[in-house]
Fold this protein.
Amino acid sequence: MLNTRRLRARLMTGAVLLTLAGGPSATAWADTRPDYGRPAAPAKRRALEATINRLSGQLGVSKATLYAIAAIVSTQPKSLSFEQIVGLVEEKAREAAALKTRVSALEVRLASSTDFVMRDRGRALLEDAGRAIDEGRLLDADRALAALVDLRWPSTDNARDAWAEAVNQRVALARVRLDEEAAATLALNAFAAEKRFDEVDRQKSRERQWRFTLDAARAYAEKGVRLVDVASLRRAIEIYRDDALPLTPRSERPADWAKTQSDLAYALASLGAFEDRVEVLELAVEAFHAALAERTYERDPAGWTETQGRLASALSMLGGRQAGVERLQESYGIYKEVLAVRPQSGSALDQATMKHNLGVLLIQLGQRTGRDAMLREAVDTFRDVLVIYARENKPLMWAETQNNLGFALRNLGWRDSGTARLLESEAAFRAALEVQTREDPSARWAGTRTSLGITLTELGRREKSPARLKEAVALLREALDGASRDPSRVRWAENQRSLGNALWALGDLEPGTATLLDGRTAYLAALGELTLKQNPASWADTQLYLSFLLEKLFDRTGERQWLESAVTAARQAGLGFKAAANADRSALARDRLASLESRRRSLR
């Protein structure tokens, strides 16, 4: 399922793209870009070249610029797949196209200046910057823009606006180069310089100051999300709250105030996701609602849609961390409203992303409420998304959707007596694995193999099929070996429990105790990471399953120690479910304990 680590995986992987046929030579712009990374595989090299050719024609950005961007993107810390790197190249290419337009517009503006320094020297520097961008010399472009900013500008209001635009262009170029720290520093320095003009023309100066603070905060927020850097996110939040908002009172500039609130809320939601802090997510939801008080659909359709989508995502994350379904239902209502009001708005991919997130939310609601209708709607939603996320164009998005479709189908299958839904779930997981690879730095491959193993475990149990169960065991073991990059020990422990379940089911069909003992080892490994205090529900589930396996060992061997251990495990499960405030599972654990104690008494 999609979760906060996807939010967090919205960013960087390592140097795998470059040394591309058709790109600029290493000597052509070696002074302005990082060295190339290791050669990409031929298929990936061709895919990136095709993207660069498409973007160049579509956006009017030179191939040299795009290769320079790819060079920078490919040298970032590892955490993204190849497809996500290509997506980041495309994002920065669009920013470069917008920057080119702004450079040209400022050239035209300076051409009408009565100050000859601005008219002649300023335009020459802008021409240098534009040419350097076109030739992929991004640092040279920055030097030209820096020289422009440092000229002796007249003190008129128009000149101050032009100066501010020059600064903003330099900030934008730093963001294109993925140097958000430099972008933020430039914007904050300009903010400090502009404060001197506050008394000359308070309104205009404060508008410029606000834009500088917004640029600085946005740069820190982008760095925070891209690199999972909570210090940068905290700095962004501080600037939004302490600098940007006071400069744009709601009573004077409601639209700018609402934009600042929305951007602040997004930074808060990102921080809350990374740190798993409910109170920060609550603040994000509060800020999104504040923004929507001004960002109505009638006043700002695009801003309303963006803010509503982000609010729905924040509510979904918050609801996943709280008991009950109130927040999840609120998120569901927002997604449905946006999709109904603007079914044709934005790109098809934007619509698909929102529908995909709705599908994930529906799975959560289906699990919490026990309503099959929610799970069936999730299945239909993911199938709609697959029509847009074509495998050939968006393979990882397509695979992720197949994975979530498999998860929804499995949840339905667990509630059915037959195997039809489980077989559909198996097919969806296998489809995802046709795309995902062990080398994917996001650990999706291991997660999907685990999901397939869980589905095969249930199919093997129902069909009494040792072959299915043996495949499940092999998949789960392979996934555990391949998930060493996943920092979540809780997830590792839950995967060990899934392996224990598969071994228990297989051991039930095989003679002897060897497989059952392997299952016991897997359960104990899980319990070595889980604790009653930190993970009560997961810890209790593992204890409960362990009690069944231990009873089976007693049945096979007649050794009373296994029955005594089963009683202890069932009692521990009851404690865990009580701590997790799960009444249904607590009742199940009580019944389980009563059954085992009855067997024990019968032996006396």
Notes: Residues 1-178 form one domain. The longest helix spans residues 82-111. Residues 313 and 586 are 31 Å apart (CA to CA). The chain is about 75% helix and 0% strand.
